[in-house]
Specification:
650 residues, Jelly Rolls, Tie2 ligand-binding domain fold, seven-stranded antiparallel beta sheet, three-stranded antiparallel beta sheet, 1 helix, 36 strands, 1% helix
């Protein structure tokens, strides 16, 4: 690539376009210059370009200086925001073609790309990538740390000042929609939907946390004033809780207690259960007519059961006594009113009536199958035989009285008061009987007829024994029967047999106590000597028959009462309300035929009786069946892998 100059071939001087050779005659580039070269021969690099190929523009030299044509260096430094010897690179934290755009808030204070401005690791705070120079939606401010308020329809606020240009949602107010309206609070968590409590004098609560700075309306709990203090309930906390058990607080919404104090009506425990009254409900109603409940504040009944005193119906009217006021007082002296519990006349009786009740009769009917009887009797009334009421001697013969069914009979009536309050009667006899003929059936019978059903009487018998003889031996072989009817015959009935002394066992004991565990109206002592009678009691004369009783005590209560003094009523769970006169157990059966033991226990499914208490079955019965309610055993076998009497062992 040469051209002719002054008849000499010289190299082309410039840089022709696309590397073409220059004109061989003129040395010029006929088709123009390469890149940015200029001049007649394309040999001159223009202003603001440099380099061997004149293809690189100068950087941003200060004062618009021209850079060095070969190196591109700016002789006096760079314009603002440019750096490098050639001033062709943005300083850190600026970017763009003019290096006049600051970087955004790059994460970790990183430098953005000096051309694109992109942050390499994301943004600080709530800014948009990749430039990190603008807040994300719903944040605003120079630091993008301020959250927009509750703009209408969820719109984003202005990212510079936070204003909601389309307005606010309900419950909030102001330009930025960031303040709850009065009476509401908790913008952050509940969008101002939380209502203030009952602040004192209706003042609005703190709009951030809902606290009432000046306290609460009466009976509301500070600081929020939204629920009642303990002991009150209702929408206005104006209702006082009832009598909850152990002074626990009631439910503050509806006033319901978990459990009530005794005798208060659940669930509110504010009034007494039926049958009780008073401020503490610890007073029991009286005997209102037809079992109606009394007034729960005053205890007054609308009407009383018969013979109870109106209006409380808690004590008997004058002239009646006992816990049912069912007994009329006796003939007390000087028209005195008897004791309303016991019926006793404290100042004695009118003539011909006996204390303490001054009323009633006991009928004692004595039967003898004898030819002749000589007897001596003493009757005692009360808790001890210290006061003798009657003492008499009588001689009775069969010829002087009527005969009933070939039995000689007489009756002695003694007025001794009400049988319910009789503790015991003592009879004292000395009988000698002579029965003719060795082949005659010889019988002697003594019957005490109590003229009413009485429970668990027992006779405590002392047979005749004096200093010169042992005549009680003639009572050998005697028997005892009881009957629960007023009139009964024959006297010897196996169904009513209680006790018989075996004459072949020897002589009877002079003092005997035989328990009669039945409801009885009559107790019969009988001795019989049938033909062929024999005895192993030395001193027993087989030619005589006798019941030589020195003393008999008949103990017990009315058939529906028990305890010392017969003061307690038999439980209603006992059959016919008859019970043991001493401990009240249901020895005659239970009202519920499925009840068990004399306690009439009714155990639940899966329980049995142990030590007079219902307890859970101890073992694992087959197919989950319950154990026997009396024994606790599994009558149909044990479940798989279990063994033992109670299926308790693996």
């Amino acid at each position: 690539m040469q051209y002719i100059r002054e008849k000499t071939c010289l190299p082309c001087q410039g840089h022709c376009k696309n590397g073409e050779p220059c004109n061989k005659l003129t040395g010029r580039c006929d088709n123009g210059c390469q890149n940015f070269w200029t001049g007649e021969f394309c040999e001159v690099c223009p202003v603001n370009y440099y380099g061997s190929d004149c293809n690189t523009p100068c950087g941003q030299c200060r004062g618009n200086d021209v850079c060095d044509k070969m190196t591109g260096h700016c002789p006096h430094g760079c314009k603002p925001h440019w750096t490098g010897p050639r001033c062709d690179v943005c300083v850190p934290y600026y970017y763009g073609s003019d290096c006049n755009t600051p970087c955004g808030q790059c994460k970790g204070d990183a430098v953005c790309n000096n051309v694109t401005g992109h942050c390499p690791n994301g943004c600080n705070g709530h800014r948009t990538e990749p430039l990190c120079n603008e807040c994300v939606d719903h944040f605003y401010g120079t630091t993008c740390d301020s959250r927009c308020g509750l703009c209408y329809n969820g719109n984003a606020c202005d990212k510079r000042n936070g204003y909601c240009m389309g307005g606010c949602i309900d419950n909030v107010e102001r330009d930025k929609c960031d303040v709850c309206k009065n009476g509401l609070y908790d913008l952050e968590h509940k969008n101002c939907s939380a209502k203030c409590g009952h602040c004192f004098k209706g003042v609005s609560c703190n709009k951030l946390d809902g606290r009432c700075a000046d306290g609460c309306t009466d009976f509301f709990q500070s600081p929020m004033c939204q629920e009642c203090v303990n002991g009150y309930y209702g929408s206005n906390c104006s209702q006082k809780c009832g009598q909850c058990l152990n002074d626990e607080a009631c439910n503050k919404g509806n006033g319901v207690c978990n459990k009530c104090q005794p005798y208060f009506q659940s669930p509110l425990c504010q009034e007494c259960v039926d049958g009780h009254y008073g401020s503490n409900c610890n007073q029991k109603c009286g005997h209102c007519m037809n079992g109606e409940a009394c007034d729960k504040k005053t205890g007054q009944c609308k009407r009383c059961q018969p013979n109870f005193q109106f209006p409380l119906c808690q004590e008997c009217k004058n002239g009646f006594y006992n816990n049912r006021c069912s007994e009329a007082c006796g003939q007390c002296a000087n028209n005195e009113i008897c004791d309303k519990e016991t019926g006793n006349c404290s100042k004695g009786c009118i003539t011909n009536f006996l204390p303490p009740l001054c009323k009633g009769r006991i009928y004692l009917i004595l039967f003898y199958h004898v030819i002749k009887s000589v007897g001596e009797m003493a009757f005692y009334l009360g808790d001890s035989p210290d006061v003798k009421v009657i003492f008499l001697t009588m001689e009775l013969t069969c010829a002087s009285i009527n005969k009933v069914a070939d039995i000689c009979q007489t009756a002695l009536v003694v007025d001794t008061g009400n049988l319910n309050d009789l503790r015991f009667i003592i009879f004292m006899f000395e009988f000698v009987y002579n029965q003719p003929g060795s082949n005659t059936r010889n019988e002697l019978l003594h019957n005490v007829n109590l003229m009413g059903a009485h429970d668990s009487y027992y006779p405590d018998s002392q047979l005749q024994k004096d200093s010169t003889s042992q005549t009680y031996k003639r009572s050998t072989g005697f028997s005892i029967y009881t009957y629960n009817t007023l009139n009964f015959y024959p006297f010897i009935d196996p169904k009513h047999f209680i006790y018989r002394h075996d004459p072949m066992s020897g002589c009877p004991a002079p003092i005997m106590n035989v328990t009669v565990n039945y409801v009885a109206q009559g107790i019969v002592f009988i001795n019989e000597r049938p033909p062929g009678y024999t005895s192993n009691c030395q001193g027993d004369n087989t030619q005589y028959v006798g019941i030589e009783i020195c003393e008999v005590k008949v103990m017990g209560c009315d058939s529906t009462r028990y305890s010392t003094g017969c003061k307690l009523e038999c439980p209603s769970k006992c059959n016919n309300k008859n019970c043991d006169a001493f401990n009240g157990s249901c020895i005659h059966g239970c009202t519920n035929p499925n009840a068990l033991t004399v306690d009439c226990l009714e155990c639940e499914y899966g329980e049995y009786i142990n030590n007079r208490t219902c307890v859970p079955c101890p073992g694992h019965c087959k197919n989950g069946a319950p154990c026997n309610k009396s024994t606790g055993r599994c009558y149909h076998g044990c479940d798989t892998h279990w063994t033992g009497d109670f299926c308790q062992r693996m």
